[in-house]
Amino acid sequence: MVFSIERRKQDIKALKEETLDVLIIGGGITGAGTALQASASGLKTGLVEMQDFAEGTSSRSTKLVHGGLRYLKNFDVEVVADTVQERAVVQGIAPHIPKADPMILPIYDEPGSTFSMFSLKVAMDLYDQLASVTGTKYANYTLTKEEVLEREPQLKSEGLLGAGVYLDYRNNDARLVIENIKRAAADGGHMLSRMKVVGILHDENNKASGATVEDLLTGETFDIKARVVLNSTGPWSDTIRQMDTKLDTVPQMRPTKGVHLVVDRKKLHVPQPTYFDTGKNDGRMVFVIPREEKTYFGTTDTDFKGDFAHPTVDQEDVDYLLEIVNNRYPSAEITIDDIESSWAGLRPLISSNGGSDYNGGNSKPIKDESFDKVISTIEQFQKGEVDRYTVEDVLKNIETGNSESEDNPSAVSRGSALDIDEDGLITVAGGKLTDYRKMAIGAMKAVIEVLKNDFNVTYELIDSAKYPVSGGEINPQEVDEETDKLAQLGIEKGLNESEATYLAHIYGSNAPKVIALIEEVEQIEGLTLADTVSLRYAMDEEMALTPADFLIRRTNHMLFMRDTLDGIIEPVIAEMARYYGWTDEAKAAHTVKLNTAIAESDLKKLKGDGNR
């Protein structure tokens, strides 16, 4: 399967001529997962994304397939059971991506602690039963204070009571998206990035029947016709609905911003992912996670009203995270100058659902004086002194006392919603990355029902729990053994062990295709042999159209290999310019865009160093 710019041209031609069964707007994890199911089920499927695949929310997560242990504080068994079971499914269909990586959760004797040692053990035992890992090597256990400090000597010892260790999974969020996209494309789906929706089409009955799109590579505008239109644009969900001239919609999205910061592991060394209360008695928890030779930590959770396409790290975000991490790891003494890279992303929260997945969502119980607060807040709103979100927060607390306790009858997973507007536009929004496949199932059932009822076309939905993504055709029970075999293929072709292992982990069952390129391409000066074949594969079969696509989302080079990034920028750009036949002007424009992204990741503006 070739998924390159030539394939893109063919897909555009097809979209101009065909009437699709479903047009999916949005190429994040939910859109990608839905496209996989639609294409595999035989639907004529198209997907358009105005940026790169996963460029928005789906490449800016905490990079975990998280189990939701925190919900068990309130014995929310159903939610955790659903989450860990779905996590196991994702690990089965994409075994080269989520990798088991047990989490350590230190407990401190301080106000507002999420768990005590006793309640943590109870929660972990229940969690293990729900995750079916009781009695296995991944079963939970507790550590004494001394054992915790032996494992993580930089941790603050004052007030430390001990810790629990339980199963969790690290993830490569952007890779999970592209592997879903590639599988959908292999099954005949037309998957297009840099294709912006500028209008919703309607038929003679005023039903949504496609979209007008602008090709951001060429500037061409054309119509795509479809029987069903599915909006899976995350934070942009309201934008698409408001673009629909046949709708009079009330905004439902309330995006919040999450920030992560990366430092060298020599500065902050943790042997395994670590998860703890902020120590601020604010109901939130923070992750500190080792990755490559780095350590990253986050996240924040603040309302965001800026440019959805361009969330940035602010000084307040840095101050908040550094205060928390330096309090927990006093000897680290991390400053902003130690931050090597960073990312900011938006959570596509639904206003009526309130809290985010495993951070935030910490509404307080109702107090007697809260009624007076509601009256006062509404008066302030009428005077223009506060916004609607402030009113919603107060009302939500009055009505439920807990921002996550309301049952949404249309929800297809925790914190998500599936809506069908009067003109037939389907919107799936909210939710967590772990639940992407279930959200896609809910959306696909709605699509198939419309096709049957309105168009007399019948499709049977595939069992996506057993349908691997691209690269996922390896035994999930023997991931380590099969990955070692794939790495050996690379070693036999001249890669060193580290390079071969890296390619095996990132590409899974597609690794032999990548390794085979060693025989076809000449090593690029300035790049390792592994980077050379990885770049070619990204352009040939992963629709990497810009240097940022390759260095940020097809690989994590900008985030976790910052030490070697500067040295490979020029050869990567030069090779892509040669491959795509860029003019000098186009090459310069791509260089500027990449350098801007790197400067933002490096926090140059906050560091006050334009030459760094």
Automatic annotation (TrEMBL):
Enzyme class, broadest EC rank: oxidoreductase
Encoding gene, per UniProt annotation: glpO
InterPro entries tied to this protein: DAO_C (IPR031656), DAO_C_sf (IPR038299), FAD-dep_OxRdtase (IPR006076), FAD/NAD-bd_sf (IPR036188), G3P_DH_FAD-dep (IPR000447)
Enzyme Commission number(s) from the entry: 1.1.3.21
Stored NCBIfam families: glycerol3P_ox_1
Pfam families associated with the record: DAO, DAO_C
Catalytic reactions of this protein: sn-glycerol 3-phosphate + O2 = dihydroxyacetone phosphate + H2O2
Gene3D superfamilies per record: Alpha-glycerophosphate oxidase, cap domain (1.10.8.870), D-Amino Acid Oxidase, subunit A, domain 2 (3.30.9.10), FAD/NAD(P)-binding domain (3.50.50.60)
Domain Alpha-glycerophosphate oxidase C-terminal: 465-586
Domain FAD dependent oxidoreductase: 21-352
Domain of life (superkingdom): Bacteria
Cofactors demanded by this protein: FAD
Name of this protein: Alpha-glycerophosphate oxidase
Keywords annotated in UniProt: FAD, Flavoprotein, Glycerol metabolism, Oxidoreductase
Protein family according to the UniProt entry: Belongs to the FAD-dependent glycerol-3-phosphate dehydrogenase family.
